[in-house]
Design brief:
By secondary structure, the protein is mainly α. Helices cover 84% and strands 0% of the residues. It is built from two helices and no strands. The longest helix has 28 residues.
């Protein structure tokens, strides 16, 4: 529990906001908003895993 990696905190918050967007789009019955939120979630999760892999390879994790 040494240092906080703030980039991962940002990725997790963005993913949570994307999940909330999906929930809101379901309540509004908006397919366009749901698709956009799902795409944003996939992009954020992809960048998060990519960054984690890079950090691990560099020995920063």
């Amino acid at each position: 529990m040494g240092n906080i990696k703030w980039i991962f905190v940002l990725f997790s918050l963005l993913a949570a906001v994307s999940l909330m967007g999906i929930a809101i789009s379901i309540s509004l019955q908006s397919i366009l908003l749901a698709v956009g939120s799902f795409a944003a979630l996939m992009v954020v999760m992809g960048f998060g895993f990519k960054t984690k892999k890079r950090y691990r390879e560099e020995g920063r994790l």
